Amino acid sequence: MANNKEFVKFDKVDKSYDGKVLVVKDLNLDISEGEFITMLGPSGSGKTTCLMMLAGFETPTNGEIYLDSNPISNIPPHKRGIGMVFQNYALFPHMTVYENLAFPLRVRKVSKEDTDKKVDKALSMVSLSGFESRMPGQLSGGQQQRVAVARALVFDPAVVLMDEPLGALDKNLRESMQYEIKHIHESIGVTVVYVTHDQGEALTMSNRIAVFNDGKVQQLSSPDKLYEEPVNSFVAEFIGENNRFSGEVTNISKDKCKVKLDNGSEIFANPIAVKSNGEKTIVSLRPERALINTKEKLENNFNGKIEEVIYHGDHTRVRLNLLGNKDFILKVPNSSANMDIKLGNEIGVSWNSFDARALDPK
Ligand code: ADP
Ligand code: MG
Questions:
Q1: Is the CB of 48 under 6 A from ligand 1?
Q2: Is 322 exposed, middle or buried (0-12, 13-18, 19+ CB in 10 A)?
């Protein structure tokens, strides 16, 4: 199968509900056939609106959406070949599991024989074979969501949309369902557009993640790139943890800059989103990129006072007062070498300029 890189294409899509405010702004997004892509962002950032436009329940104010190279503005939702799972897109409560799954097939005039086969296959995919005659009310929350996933897949759609499908489940179940959905995706290769506000969920499941804020895609990257190489301070703050220093660029070259912090100290950083001296910046450093008491000679070396120590089993989380930042976080692997991590101690902390990303000051 030719892997169409633009299987789903949002082309300059804007959306306004009231004719004034754009809640989706100039969305350009190409989704490959078979890809698992996640729209991740805070509440109100426009994720659901994007899914609704792709599904056909909302119309773009400007721009066009293409499915397999065809514009879809004039195609009604049920003819787009798109399956859907929503957090509160409940199963039909008065129908058995079998009838719930047969419903999208009946709409598409599939024969009884094929319906039975497809329902069997879809139920076995979500490990619910044998549950055909149960009513939704006789299933746990997790089982109901699995039936909803099976119902979205049962008619072999080209694309499946999932909008916070695990939001109502407790943590353990949510995590096991993340792997389950990821494995289903890997085994059948359907294109999935997934929406969540949970960064851990997005990192676990996706081939690529589009980070939304305020109707705009802030960054579109693989999970590891998003975490390791955030392009702006919103993404650095939204994905994972980061230590932040605000200051002004004083000495910039191609791959290094000096930043004078608000408290007067100077650090070396990686000039990601700054171009010239005098610019304001926020320098972002992942906690695990800062080393303590290391013998290596790194460009940034400072002493900090330990303000808080929290034991986390596999690592210890240490909060320091460092360079005027009272919330500087370190994550230290637990080993006997790190016994001097005690409240009130001064320790040496170092990091490479490369890992300290000078971003926009927002
Ligand atoms: P998300 O899914 O990221 O939480 P939404 O797409 O639901 O964001 O919402 C984006 C913005 O559009 C929000 O400001 C929301 O209030 C507004 N909005 C969403 N749906 C409607 C609607 N049907 N009518 C008017 N405004 C809406
Ligand atoms: Mg939403």
A1: yes
A2: buried
What is the pTM (predicted TM-score) of this model? 0.92
The residues near 158 (Cβ < 8 Å, ≥ 6 apart) are 7, 67, 68, 81, 82, 190, 191
* Ligand 1 atom showing the smallest separation from residue 41 Cα: 3
Give the domain 6-233 fold.
Rossmann fold (3.40.50)
Asked if 302 contacts 268 with a C-beta cutoff of 8 angstroms, the reply is no
Asked if residue 17 has its Cβ within 6 Å of ligand 1, the reply is yes
Boundaries of every domain in the chain? 6-233, 241-359
Nearest ligand 1 atom to alpha carbon 39: 3
Tell me the DSSP string of 149-160: HHHHHTT--SEE
Ligand nearest the Cα of residue 21 is 1
Domain 241-359: state its class.
mainly beta
**If you measure from the C-alpha of residue 49 to the centroid of ligand 2, how many angstroms do you get, rounded to a whole number?**
7
Which mutation among 17, 21, 40 tests ligand 1's pocket best, with the greatest number of atoms within 8 A of CB?
17
Is residue 340 scored above 80 in pLDDT?
Answer: no
What does the pLDDT look like over 319-338, one tens digit per residue? 999 999 999 999 988 876 66
